[in-house]
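Incident log, structure service

09:12 report received: a user says their structure output differs between two submissions of the same chain.
09:20 pulled the input from the user's history:
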Amino acid sequence: MEIIIDFNQISSSPVAFAWWFFTTIGWIYPVFLLMYGLLLTWQNYIRNRYRRQRKYILLAIDVPKNNEQSPLAVENIFAQLAAAHQPLKFHDKWWKGEINDSFSFEIVSLGGYIQFIIHARDTFRDLIEAAIYAQYPDAEITEVEDYTQKWKIKFPNDQYDLFGTELKLAKSDVYPIITYKLFEDSLSQELKDPMAGLLEALTRIGPGEEIWVQFLITPANNDWGDKAKPIINRLVGAKDSGTKDLFSRVTNLFTYALDSLLTAPSETKAGASKEPPTQMLHLTPGKKDEVAAIEHKVNKIGYHTRIRFAYLAEKSKFFKEKASKGIYGSFKQFNDLGLNSLKPDSRYLTGGIVFMKERRLIWRKTKMLIRCRNRAHFMSPGEYGFILNTEELASLWHFPMMTVKAPLVKKTEAKRAEPPMTLPLERRRTHATPADTRPAAAKVEPPQNLPIPGLYG
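09:34 re-ran on a clean worker, output below:
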């Protein structure tokens, strides 16, 4: 069968050529776009339906004043919370609309009073409490109201102003940041708690001012470290044996066949015997440490992470350097210029705008407030952020040690103790008494405006 296309009949008219192209193969492109658009619409619909079913709680965590636990205890907490990871199947994604659940580990300063808070789905409450009590038996966990829901304002606002941003990594997330293990003094063997800098910055505000620091984390798959293999191979000079696509395999096969034809067998053997498998022996000490740091990071449990902070205050008290310098400065102690560092993400920074400055600044402030209030509720796969392992997260968010003297951090006043074994127990009655026949008192609900303990100190 022979197909003959006569272009002479359509070359004289561009309209005729466009019509001919559309009726032959050009119709495939708009049909593909239509089907793709319908697929995305269906996916967004079922995901929003799933989101409406989720309910959240806010847990305030208070630890004893004489806390001697190092950040390793919080690292164990993050490792245990990885049990919330849920591998989703095709039916779960495209029929139920399920998406991965996230946690928000927060440190808030309300007028200078500091509180550690965890925001999560109510179904994870038992998991969170078990993980915390396992490491901090004397901790107090209290469900509190959401401190962000009272801020239902828009910008520009006559009374309040806002500064906020999100942080991102300067390099690929397989490169680690400085962790708490490097904050130990080599002489005194004392851990210089990196949380002290952040807590001191949070105490520098007063009434009418608030600072929110949020770490939105989502458990990552266990194979998240596979993307480090090409980087390690490049650093040590090894051949990349990673998974390749079909085009790369065909190209490599053609190159190998061509080299085999143009190269003599003796030359091939001689060249192969002289080439070392890696250049590890010839690396500088800095490069060796870089490879070891990458391997150490990817061998631990990872979380997709988004870090954001916001500073809200009355305009008469607003001083954005309290956040842009004080809060961000506390994160710079985790930066390693040879490995990785945290820096503001210009896409979310409420500043540094040149073109259409006023309109874009108003839009970014409003969006930042909405993001802080919603946490990870509307995040979809692909928006969960870069990956930090449990050691890095525990370095950034952990309960202060007893050496930290920040006075306005909410802590428990005393340790809980078990009752003595010799305490006499009340004997069980086997018959009814006149007191048992009295009608039970009616239960009275507490007032709605009752202050919640543990949030404001």
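09:41 both user submissions now match this output. Likely a transient worker issue. Closing.
09:42 reviewer note: DSSP finds 13 helices and ten strands in the chain. The first helix runs from residue 14 to 26.
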